[in-house]
Specification:
With about 290 residues, the chain is of the alpha/beta class. The chain is about 25% helix and about 30% strand. It is built from nine helices and 15 strands. It has a nine-stranded mixed β-sheet. Strands 12-13-14-15 form a four-stranded mixed β-sheet, with helices on both faces. A two-stranded antiparallel sheet has the order 10-11. The longest helix has 14 residues.
Length: about 290
Amino acid sequence: MDGPSLQELIQAEGVTLSGGVPTIWTMYLAHLERSGEDSGTLQRLVIGGSAVPRAMAETFQTTYGVAVCQLWGMTETSPLGVVATPTPKLAERGQHATNDTIWTRQGRLQFGIELKVVDEQGRELPCDGVSSGSLKVRGPWTVERYYRSEASALDADGWFDTGDIATLDADGFMHITDRSKDVIKSGGEWVSSIDIENVAVACPGVKVAAVVGVFHPKWEERPLLVIEPHSDAEVTVEKILAHLEPNIVKWWMPDAVIFDAVPLTATGKIDKKVLRERYRNHLVENQPSVVNQ
């Protein structure tokens, strides 16, 4: 499935509502931009599986009039966890504030699901939209144990560890900053690979951006950015770094930028396991650099 195929299907069938992971819609937007076509009958998109770049949601809404709804869930939550829909309280702050929230959060609390974020010692963190930690869920239809397992998947208080790193804000909106297995810890500080990716993919000409933590002899881990540009785009490291610099903190800037094809899983998600293995010694064997593969 690629951008032209999606467009052909949407136009032929008069599709008004669709869903998929962000990678699919990146290809679709690229096709619309190259071809000059519009989105036809398409009115709404539901996007999940990984964090939606703000630039993607904003482009769909402002350029094509297509509303994007983010959501988050997992098999263990049967499957819905949160949905990014506005509340009356949020709407009172105006359209700009509403868009800013629903374009940058995975969603808000739903009936039957409790959420909390805890630090490394298991202490609950405040709902301030800033404090990030391990995301835990609890509810009557949340998993209790896995098939053929005798041990419960829950802690003593009935909470399930999702494996995500997230924040919660005062309005109950959740923002995933990373998967716990993907989080980069550099010199004792957390670096959000997802936040860097979402900024990088908004750079013109970038098709897919992936960030992984690789070994660094001083800082233990540092971020490495892999960029897959569109086939007809001219993307340079100078453009990438200039785009990143005003949008992320200085110590999140990647130590290496590599132009290469980004591997995807069968469900269209970035396969970071492959990237970590491929580049695990890159910073040891090379000076901080830009590499074209």
